[in-house]
Design a protein that fits this description.
Helices cover 41% and strands 17% of the residues. With 269 residues, it is an alpha/beta fold.
Length: 269
């Protein structure tokens, strides 16, 4: 993976103007290419100055690696041009699908956990890696419906990374949310992960919607229970940690306070 260490933060337009002037500096930023490929003029200079001053990685949302439809080569070309323009070495996405009948849903939809899907994913992962000339890193996604499947999420996930050679972006909050919604032990799930495939971690907040359903909202601080799961996971492998916040985004210095808590924990390992 690229040269990132420590803890990072997802770069958002809501606080981009505060980053350079703030005394609070993160170890690296993560950008979503779809948000910045056509960067609005009012953000462009600041965006490029941030990329000059901080290590930056990328995390996409609309590759749709698990779709039944052909990969969108125009979209891949846009992604590659963006990554090449800013010399971003790391590109991660989601173990899910997002496009339906050639239309983008902008949702991370669940895959059937089957042997056929594993084979299909391996073919598509190989194509993307060859096209982008970069290793593809894929995140375990939250899901609220389980399609017809032949195996558990853990078995499916490990099989995809073992057979494809891709790396895993282990979203710790997603494990925690899925464990509640689908009734499994998150610590046993972490125990079962093949950590030689793990590149880095995501942390985020979630919304406890009902007594039976939690939502991966990215709209509030990380729960203490998820922080505890992060500590357990870091005990397995000390890898970089990235804090995501996509909704109800606070000012940069306020968000940095939450980031600092995670960084302080990370430094103890």
């Amino acid at each position: 993976m690229g040269e990132i260490n420590g803890c990072g933060l997802g770069l958002r337009s809501e606080f981009i103007d505060s980053v350079l002037d703030s005394p609070n500096k993160v170890d690296f930023f993560e950008v979503t290419p779809e948000n910045w490929i056509y960067t609005p003029t009012k953000y462009l200079k600041t965006f490029e100055r941030i990329l000059d001053r901080f290590p930056v990685i990328s995390h996409g949302v609309s590759l749709s690696i698990g779709s039944d439809f052909a990969l969108d080569k125009t979209f891949l070309m846009q992604i590659k041009n963006f990554l090449d323009r800013y010399d971003i070495k790391v590109y991660s996405e989601h173990l899910s699908f997002a496009s339906l009948n050639g239309k983008q849903s902008y949702e991370l939809l669940p895959l059937p956990m089957t042997h056929n899907m594993i084979e299909r994913l391996c073919e598509r992962i190989d194509f993307v890696q060859n096209y982008l000339q970069r290793e593809l890193i894929l995140e375990n996604a939250t899901y609220y419906y389980t399609p017809e499947s032949q195996m558990s999420e853990l078995e499916f996930t490990n099989s995809v990374f073992k057979k494809s050679g891709a790396k895993m972006l282990l979203d710790i909050n997603n494990v925690f949310v899925n464990s509640f919604n689908h009734h499994f032990d998150p610590y046993k799930f972490i125990d079962g992960i093949d950590f030689k495939n793990v590149a880095y971690y995501h942390m985020a907040g979630h919304f406890e919607y009902t007594d039976t359903l939690w939502i991966d909202s990215h709209g509030m601080p990380v729960k203490d229970e998820v922080v505890n799961l992060m500590k357990y996971t870091l005990g397995k492998l000390k890898a970089p940690v990235l804090l995501e916040r996509d909704n109800n985004i606070p000012p940069y210095d306020e968000l940095f306070s939450e980031y600092k808590k995670l960084k302080d924990i990370h430094e103890t390992f």
